[in-house]
DNA sequence: ATTGAAACACCCAAGAG
DNA sequence: CTCTTGGGTGTTTCAAT
């Protein structure tokens, strides 16, 4: 599917604020409400827009500590990779998990209320996985930016 | 502000799907439409719900390469930290930037269409910052999980 | 927290460019 | 094919209880 400038603008605007009405969008883009509506439906149908979600303030929800862990596995067999990718999904503290190139195998993002909870996560959950090699943790001291919007080229 | 079980459930549901109607929520939670409505408005007013956004598929939007860069600065003076945190916001390829503890100073997440664009970003933008020390890049080979939902405790 | 009612947005049909 | 106009349906919002 090929996106024109109007589609791109719609995506940009909805990535910033999905609650704005089709009417508001129609005024910004000088189109009728229905034209906008049909374009949005198409973007949803094509799988370009995947979800509409509410974002919440982690600080206010007791997720005061964000930690990135670089994880290495003892081996890189398909079995172990599969097992890790299945097991990691069971830990609700892990909000992101990427298989990456470089010195380590995985980069995971962990959200917990405090250091005690992080310790619990490490001891009881992450490092209790048999096939786990090493882990290295980086604690987030300040979030400069953390956007869900994808740059549209 | 203290959240009861109903508030937490609402937050959980809206973090998964913000397009569901208050009526749908009212059925799931056995409350009236207005009761749900008032709770949501309160969560917005208190700043717990910060935004409603559309999520899009990066693959379909020409953001085929995700790279995490571990960045170190030459010094850690307040001036340099400030400068970096200002400058990094100007690069639209950088969707996230965290000041972290550990071997490096910052962890940034970069989204680009391809390797050529990444090279351009590194050469023309990131490493052209005078105060930049070292960088180490990890390329994402597979995204196992990447959720915007914060675990509610 | 609920009911009920007004205002509004969404969504579809029909038709124009 | 994508656009616009117009109207029915359902949702949001608010007042009263």
Automatic annotation (TrEMBL), chains A, B:
Name this polypeptide is given: Putative AsnC-family transcriptional regulator
Domain HTH asnC-type per the UniProt entry, residue ranges: 3-64
Native organism taxonomy: Bacteria, Pseudomonadati, Bacteroidota, Flavobacteriia, Flavobacteriales
SMART domains: HTH_ASNC
A GO BP annotation: response to amino acid
CDD domains: HTH_ARSR
GO molecular-function term, one example from the UniProt record: sequence-specific DNA binding
Key words of the record: DNA-binding, Transcription, Transcription regulation
GO cellular component annotations of the record: cytosol
The organism of origin for this protein: Croceibacter atlanticus (strain ATCC BAA-628 / JCM 21780 / CIP 108009 / IAM 15332 / KCTC 12090 / HTCC2559)
């Amino acid at each position: 599917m090929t996106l024109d400038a109007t589609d791109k603008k719609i995506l940009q605007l909805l990535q910033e604020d999905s609650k704005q009405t089709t009417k508001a969008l129609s005024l910004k883009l000088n189109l009728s409400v229905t034209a906008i509506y049909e374009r949005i439906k198409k973007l949803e149908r094509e799988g370009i827009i995947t979800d509409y979600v509410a974002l919440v303030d982690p600080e206010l929800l007791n997720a005061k500590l964000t930690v990135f862990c670089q994880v290495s596995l003892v081996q890189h067999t398909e079995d172990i990779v599969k097992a890790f990718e299945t097991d990691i999904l069971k830990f609700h503290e892990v909000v992101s998990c990427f298989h990456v190139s470089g010195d380590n195998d995985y980069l995971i993002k962990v959200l917990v209320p405090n250091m005690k909870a992080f310790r619990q996560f490490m001891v009881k959950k992450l490092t209790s996985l048999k096939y786990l090699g090493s882990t290295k943790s980086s604690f987030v001291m300040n979030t400069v930016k953390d956007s869900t919007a994808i740059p549209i080229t």
